């Protein structure tokens, strides 16, 4: 789906034990409850959007695409955010979502 961000690659190289612990934590929290993979990805996308974390939104959209979640479902997260985080912030989130979905469309054409 694409290369890892350079900063994250450097983190993996410089702190491999921390990276392994981080991966284990991620796996543990995903398995700790009844939510299915699609729901977990959309929830994490919403959390990333609410925190206005562009890189995290990009990562979650990449995961959503890999999981074959429909573009309309991914974009609805930004729409649902409008009353909570406001229109301008939601439009920023939509643009971050489109950063990834537009690249996907370009590759498929």
From TrEMBL:
SUPFAM superfamilies: AhpD-like
InterPro entries tied to this protein: AhpD-like, CMD-like
Record keywords: Membrane, Oxidoreductase, Peroxidase, Transmembrane, Transmembrane helix
Molecular function in Gene Ontology: peroxiredoxin activity
Transmembrane regions listed in the UniProt entry: 77-97
Domain Carboxymuconolactone decarboxylase-like: 16-98
A Pfam family it matches: CMD
PANTHER family, alphabetized: ALKYL HYDROPEROXIDE REDUCTASE AHPD, BLR3452 PROTEIN
Protein known as: Alkylhydroperoxidase like protein, AhpD family
């Amino acid at each position: 789906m694409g290369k890892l961000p350079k900063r994250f690659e450097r983190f993996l190289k410089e702190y491999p034990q921390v990276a392994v612990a981080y991966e284990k934590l991620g796996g543990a929290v995903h398995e700790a409850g009844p939510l299915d993979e699609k729901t977990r990805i959309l929830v994490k996308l919403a959390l990333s959007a609410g925190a206005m974390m562009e890189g995290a939104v990009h990562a979650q959209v990449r995961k959503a695409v890999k999981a074959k979640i429909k573009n309309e479902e991914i974009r609805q997260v930004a729409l649902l955010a409008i009353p909570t985080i406001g229109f301008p912030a939601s439009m920023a989130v939509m643009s971050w979502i489109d950063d990834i979905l537009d690249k996907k469309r370009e590759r498929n054409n």
